[in-house]
Structure formats: structure tokens, C-alpha cells
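Interim report, section 4.2 (structural modelling).
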Amino acid sequence: NAGVMQNPRHLVRRRGQEARLRCSPMKGHSHVYWYRQLPEEGLKFMVYLQKENIIDESGMPKERFSAEFPKEGPSILRIQQVVRGDSAAYFCASSLAGEEQFFGPGTRLTVL
Amino acid sequence: GEDVEQSLFLSVREGDSSVINCTYTDSSSTYLYWYKQEPGAGLQLLTYIFSNMDMKQDQRLTVLLNKKDKHLSLRIADTQTGDSAIYFCADPPSNTGKLIFGQGTTLQVKP
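Predicted structure of the assembly:
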């Protein structure tokens, strides 16, 4: 049973470009969470999704950031018009029924 | 509000015990978690404790929970160089789904 998969592992973008981060949850998991880790800091919750629904987006910046978890396919975290402050590691986690969360290896975004 | 605090750094010698401390503010959680993060990697769930327990032992790991003081600790016995990592405690406020993480404690193990 494969764990949580994220791709790409490393992503470099220039200011103003779009970044798309993908997360495939563990098999059978329908709950997905996105967290952001800034350098030298802990993880901060961004958004919690179930299939086709956003449950809690209280940690998402109001502009430029969006997330989806379609019926088929991976969850996508999309950052439009990236700025240098978006450089961070973005982690996805999944759970079976809102309990123990299993984390992916993360996507490290660098904005030049 | 929801907050989790940890000390930032701990250095021990190989073979010693390590104790990593954490305080939290939201006491509605059913579980409290400890995660380990090695350099450049994701988070690995180390252990957890049910909120109605005071202590949980799992091989070299001992978790102590003081609900009155909202204090959680992780003790690693016979610390090895492979234990060098960042350790995060995490508090999931009930019915919210999200985890609130501390800043992480960097454990350095000297040979």
C-alpha cells in the first residue's frame, strides 16, 4: 500500500508564475489536508478537503491560493502569481476518516 | 486561540535520555501526537497518546501527559545518533480535522 505521494518534490518558479502541487492520498483515504512549512518554522494548517468538498480553509491566504480534491485524481494546491514569500515546503496529509494523518514527503517550492 | 509551544533545541550525548517538552492551549483533543521529521523529509508519526491517559510507553519512547497543566513530553531512552531530527508535537482541536503544530524541537545527538 503506497503512502501519500506528492509531486513534484521540488518546484522552481519565477515571480508571477503559477505553481501547481499535487497530492495523491493513501488508498482508501478520502480526507486530505495541506500544510505549509516556512524555513525554520513548524507546519501551519492551510486547508482540509474531502472528495469534492472544502471542509475548512481557514488557513488559506484569501488571494492567489486555491485547493481542490476532485472525485477522480489527486488533490491540487494551486498558487497563482507566486511571490518570494511563497517559498516553502508544502506538505499534504491524508486520513481515513478524519483521524490519524499520514504525511507525504512534501513539495519544496522555490520562487526566484 | 489554539497554540502549541516547544523549546527549539536540545543536545544530548549518545546513550543518554532525551526529554522534549510541549505545552498546548486547546484541551478538547481526543489524541495528542508526536511526529519526527528528518532533514529534507516529510513527517513520520512517532507515537500518540489518548487524552484520558497519563502515560504511554512504546519501546524506547515514553509519552507523559499532564492535562491540568496542558503539558506533554516525549522521553527517548538510550538516544542514538539516528534519533537526530526535528520533533513536533501536534494538537488536533476536536472536530476540526486540522493539526496545530509546535515550532519543532531540533534534537542533536553527539557521539
